[in-house]
Specification:
The complex is a heterodimer of chains A (263) and B (446). With 263 residues, chain A is of the alpha/beta class. Chain A contains eight helices and ten strands. Chain A has a six-stranded mixed sheet. In chain A, strands 2-1-4-5 form a four-stranded antiparallel sheet, covered by helices on one side. Chain A is globular, with a radius of gyration of 18 Å. By secondary structure, chain B is α+β, with helices and mostly antiparallel strands. Chain B folds into two domains: 201 residues, no CATH class; 197 residues, no CATH class. Chain B contains 16 helices and 13 strands. Chain B has a six-stranded mixed barrel. Chain B has a three-stranded mixed sheet with strand order 2-11-10, with no helix packed on it. In chain B, helix 11 runs antiparallel to helix 15. The chains are: A alpha/beta (263), B alpha+beta (446). At the A-B interface, helix 2 and helix 3 of A face helix 1, helix 10, helix 11 and helix 16 of B. Bound molecules: adenosine-5'-triphosphate and magnesium ion.
Chain lengths: 263, 446
């Protein structure tokens, strides 16, 4: 594992002929049947497809949570397909940011502590990293709630903590599996505005979604069917927020937090 | 990554379920305290036994005379002499080179009374004829006056030395020294020349040496006893009549060194049984060997008690394992999150191990504290029963009244480290199980 964290490659990820088979007792499920595409740095990809088409399987492979049955997955200069379990853990800690549908914050930990978890596993916890986590919390509008527990936050707030957490290790890309699936339309807007801001700042984002509304905010769409890529194209009429809209949405979100604060 | 943070995190997780953690700790500290307590009780018992045997003298060999059971219909005229004889004593003294000195002892149950107060009720005690060496061999010290001297022996003087308790009973308000004691059964007077320091009773040892209480003894020169009372004892009590003839009740043989004791004892036994290997009227008691036996018994006691205590620790360990398995299942999701965010398998293992080690260390510390105060607890409890429930106290068995637990110093680090080892051992399986989970499955867990 080369520590090329400083010099990010032009390609955030490159996959070739990726296959994933689940061998069950009675049958072999071929969840991915040879998927190839590149993700250049700064891309914003929406992965869509019917249920069971292999979206989550693909995302798990991209997130190094699982190893492919065949094919290659180049992350930086390293082929992840060949790595040991411990190496994969290291990659997850240092190069990947996860945002889950169900937020997945750790209940015992406060907002800042949750944001710090990847750094903890990188062995990079120190006063500076605490400063960075605090800044990230502020960036997602939770600067006033550093010491709060996940159970004391709304769903949208929890998801924003999760996004801050996904940024803390300065990852190659952020993976979001139905990140807005549990949220109402207003909060969904909030999260999408945040994603766009991050993407505008140069972050690479790969998200799985069912909703065309959500997918419309991405730059590029990949459609899967039965484990194969059927569509891979740039989105022509991409929906974007103007700088003022982003400002407005995040201000509202911050106001909501402060109102909560005074109760 | 067993950093401070890992420990803090572990403690936080434990504090999320204070009751559950407390109960788990309870299981461990009962086990640890149990090890220390049981070993302390075992040590207390065996030390008491060893002390009693040591009181008999490790370099002594004791030969007791045993009165044969009265044969039904035995004629009064054909009473035979029993027990060890003066001749045998002289043989032992003069022919066995490792023998330092021999003390002859002849004991008679007697009634005593202060001659200056003949109306008082006689006190039941024991008249002991002995030689001056008796004081030396049994490590007796006169509190006042002196012990019997060889001059007393030579002149068959009617002098006596009395035990502390008897002195107080016979002479409640007077100085016993130089006062006459009267033996109504023998119609004899003895002048008190010394009062002894209080002396502990000895326990019964095996079947051959009965428990002895020295508190009501009167010691006189054995020569005087022979001259005034002979070798025959006649007892008349409400219609029954018994005669017995014996020269000595006991001889105590002091050997040069404890190492010589076993061999000397064999020679003595052989000498005494030369003519009749089957003779039943003597018993040779070797405190040194008893001491060795007691030490072996102590070891067995320790092993047995330790084993019982160890079982309770294992039960505590199973408690830990049980709780940790439940915790791991309950926190499957958290495990998945931590793995997804870069936690290695070893990080997860460590995280759960830290929790079990914390539980067992805290349990171990409380257990050690509780174990160390145990002797005081026993004293306190005894005092409470004695003060507030005297009736119950009187009914307590002797052992409960006298046992003093002796903490075995080694048992503290032993119990503590066993508790930690058990924590690790029983925590390892749940921790490894947690680490082995597939992160994707774990993330899906509700
Ligand atoms: N652990 C597994 N064992 C066996 N089969 C699996 C496993 N995980 C996924 N599959 C199968 O692989 C295929 C793809 O599943 P995947 O979860 O990737 O679908 P998806 O596109 O994410 O669907 P959804 O939109 O419902 O989340 C499905 O047929 C599924 O049953
Ligand atoms: Mg899915």
């Amino acid at each position: 594992m080369s520590s090329s964290t400083e010099t990010k490659p032009k390609l955030a990820a490159q996959i070739r002929d990726l296959t994933k088979h689940y061998v069950l007792k009675s049958e072999t499920v071929r969840a991915l049947r040879g998927v190839s595409f590149d993700v250049p740095e700064g891309d914003y990809v929406a992965i869509m497809g019917p249920s069971g088409s292999g979206k989550s399987t693909l995302l798990n492979l991209l997130g190094c949570l699982d190893r492919p049955t065949g094919g290659s997955f180049m992350l930086g200069g390293d082929d992840v397909a060949q790595m040991s379990d411990d190496d994969l853990s290291g990659i997850r800690a240092s190069r990947i940011g996860f945002v889950f549908q169900s937020y997945n914050l750790i209940a015992q930990l406060s907002v800042v502590e949750n944001i710090e978890v990847p750094l903890y596993y990188m062995g990079r916890l120190n006063r500076e990293s605490r400063k960075k986590s605090t800044e990230l919390a502020g960036m997602v509008g939770l600067g006033q709630r550093l010491g709060h527990r996940p159970t004391q936050l709304s769903g949208g707030q929890q998801q924003r903590v999760a996004i801050a957490r996904s940024l803390v290790n300065d990852p190659y890309f952020i993976l979001a599996d139905e990140a807005t699936g549990n949220l109402d339309s207003v909060t969904t807007e909030e999260i999408l505005a945040l994603f766009q801001r991050l993407n505008d700042e140069g972050r690479t984002i790969i998200m799985v979604t069912h909703e065309d509304e959500v997918a419309a905010h991405a730059k590029r769409i990949i459609r899967l069917k039965d484990g194969e890529v059927v569509v891979d194209e740039q989105i022509k009429d991409r929906k974007t927020y103007t700088a003022e809209e982003i400002e407005e949405i995040s201000k509202n979100a911050h106001l909501a937090n402060q109102a909560d604060e005074e109760n | 990554m067993l950093s401070l943070r890992t420990w803090i995190l572990g403690l936080k997780s434990l504090l999320l379920h204070p009751m559950r953690s407390a109960l788990t700790i309870l299981g461990i500290f009962i086990g640890v305290a149990g090890v220390i307590w049981l070993l302390a009780i075992g040590e207390g018992i065996s030390q008491a036994a060893q002390k009693q045997i040591e009181d008999l003298g490790a370099e002594n060999i004791i030969v007791r005379s045993i009165k044969p059971p009265d044969e039904a219909g035995a004629s009064v005229r054909t009473v035979e002499m029993f027990g060890v004889s003066r001749a045998e004593m002289r043989t032992i003294e003069s022919t066995i080179p490792t023998v330092e000195q021999v003390v002859p002892i002849r004991e008679l149950p007697q009634k005593f009374i202060y001659a200056g107060n003949q109306n008082a009720t006689p006190i039941d005690g024991r008249l002991v004829g002995c030689s001056p060496a008796y004081a030396d061999v049994t490590k007796l010290k006169p509190a006042r006056g002196r012990f019997i001297s060889s001059r007393d022996m030579a002149t068959n003087d009617s002098v006596c030395v009395i035990a502390a308790v008897l002195a107080r009973k016979l002479f409640p308000s007077e100085d016993p020294l130089e006062k006459p004691v009267y033996l109504p059964e023998k119609k004899e007077y003895f002048k008190v020349i010394g009062v002894l320091e209080p002396r502990n009773a000895t326990a019964a040892i095996g079947g051959s040496l009965a428990a002895q209480d020295f508190s009501l003894d009167i010691y006189i020169p054995i020569t005087t006893m022979r001259a005034k009372m002979g070798d025959e004892e006649v007892k008349r009590a409400s219609g029954s009549f018994s005669r017995s003839v014996f020269e000595l009740t006991q001889i105590t043989i002091e050997v040069e060194s404890p190492e010589e004791v076993p061999r000397t004892a064999e020679v003595i036994e052989a000498t005494l049984r030369m003519n009749d290997p089957q003779r039943q009227d003597i018993a040779v008691i070797v405190p040194y060997e008893l001491l060795e036996q007691a030490k072996a018994t102590r070891l067995m006691l320790m092993v047995a008690f330790g084993f019982v205590a160890a079982i309770s620790l294992v039960v505590g360990g199973i408690g830990i394992m049980n709780i940790m398995l439940a915790t791991v299942t309950e926190r499957t999701r958290e495990i998945g999150i931590r793995r997804a965010l870069g936690g290695k398998r070893s990080d997860i293992t460590n995280q759960f191990l830290v929790e079990t080690i914390s539980l067992s260390v805290v349990g171990g510390i409380i257990g050690v504290l509780l174990g160390v105060v145990f002797p005081f607890l026993v004293i306190g409890l005894r005092w409470l029963t004695y003060t507030f429930a005297a009736d119950t106290y009187a009914k307590l068995p002797d052992i409960a009244k006298t046992l003093q637990p002796e903490i075995v110093p080694l048992s503290i680090p032993l119990a503590f480290s066993i508790s930690v080892i058990i924590g690790v051992l029983f925590g390892l399986y749940p921790a490894i199980r947690a680490a082995r989970m597939d992160p994707i499955e774990a993330l899906r867990h509700e």
